[in-house]
Amino acid sequence: MTRDLDDLMAAALAARERTLPGLPEDATAWTATVARVRRRRRARHTATTVSALAVAGLVAGAGWLGVTAKEHPAPAVPPPSVTSTPTSAPAVPTPASPTVGAVLTSPGVPDARPLDAAVLAGTGPGWVVATYWPARDGSDGPVPATPAVLVVSPTGERYRAHALPPGIVPRVLSWRSGAAQVRVEVVPTDPRVAASLPGATTTGTLDLLTGALTTDQVNPPDGATYVATTPAGVELWSDGTALRAFPPSGAPRDLGATAASTAFLVSPDGSLVAQTTDDATGVYLFHVDGGPRTEVRTGVTDGACQAVAWHDATSLLVSCFDFTGGGGVLDWNPRLELVTTSGDTTPLGRLRAGAPFPVRPFGTYVSDGVVATAGAALSPAVATADACATGAYLLQGSAATLLQGAGSRHDTFFRLAAVGGTVYVESSHDCAAADAPAVLTAHRVGTGASVVLAPAPAADGGARWVAGLASWVVGGAVG
């Protein structure tokens, strides 16, 4: 995500702290929130450093999930209350719905028509929920504008959900197409809201039609990172040391110790989660049903392999190289292999100059035998296995097809999801640490057709936009 949500959140939290003459007597929750955001940023940057050594990537769960938002520091008014289950009353007062059919406009957010029950009922797999948290460049860092949640059709029609409650950032975790309720992680931007939440990491549901927010009791560990939601509705979270499963009912399950990397790959049916081992010579397999963690080896002895994406229900595509002591990736025997869940390996061939070598945040399953991934086109200039991407590619066996290149924006980071033969590509400058808004584009495999679903904020004569699209999810996607 272009300027990562946690980066933007950290800047907004710092700005909010500066605007408060004094915090409430009990500011524990607010302090925990600020600390958690900063801790997550440190952990993410650490994972990126580790990835340069272990060819590991950084994947934010793109389950059936996704979106996030933010707004200006809240004015000095009594904070909104947040409802906890089982209370069914709206969590916060919400403004009246806009006139049906009117085009809604606000700075940094694409024009959209209001979302209503009829439109929502007609959504299906391939529809996207996206959160915009636009921000302009400012002398003391990014200056956030009013956030918004959009529901976007596969052909690019945009509908704006109800206004968000003030004082929070809803990071959407999962959404089933057609449903009004979206699972979210509730991140407060106001210390008084933080004090009303049951924990430093609080989850709940946001109603797209009313804006009502209701918290629940899932409460993953403080500082945990959301991984994905399986088709069976099991939420997966990692606290950096273990992977935990939160089923729709019943007690959470500890699925086993994790590697340091934050990259997780959920199998097409949602029964397994794969993660590259710390030494990058194997793959951990976590069994969502609660079975013991298992491990398969890639066969590399003096090199490293990285799990790129699930190739089918029982095998993973991995990218490997050898430690040769000099040169760049082209000199390291770069190659693709298949590794099955039973530990069998099948080489797919060495990658030559011009072929894409998978790089963070790696790839996604498209269909059996077909994978989409971020990749760096191999050349003598590619000096490390953690190079910035040159595009998003479709891989079938050892054959590669460019889906989306750097383009006129010179994008260097591509995050992917796939549903029903369409690959969704979020492109940004994130790899180069440049502040530029992300763009989300849908590519229909086999036809060459593409459509921009979530564009960058339109120029309006003000300071330049450094953020727009904050996060997104495709209805029906897994991890």
From TrEMBL:
Name assigned to this protein: Lipoprotein LpqB beta-propeller domain-containing protein
Biased composition, class Low complexity, residue ranges: 82-91
Classification via InterPro entries: WD40/YVTN_repeat-like_dom_sf
The entry's keywords: Membrane, Transmembrane, Transmembrane helix
Keyword Transmembrane: yes
KW Cytoplasm (keyword) present: no
Membrane-traversing stretches: 46-67
Spans annotated as Disordered: 73-96
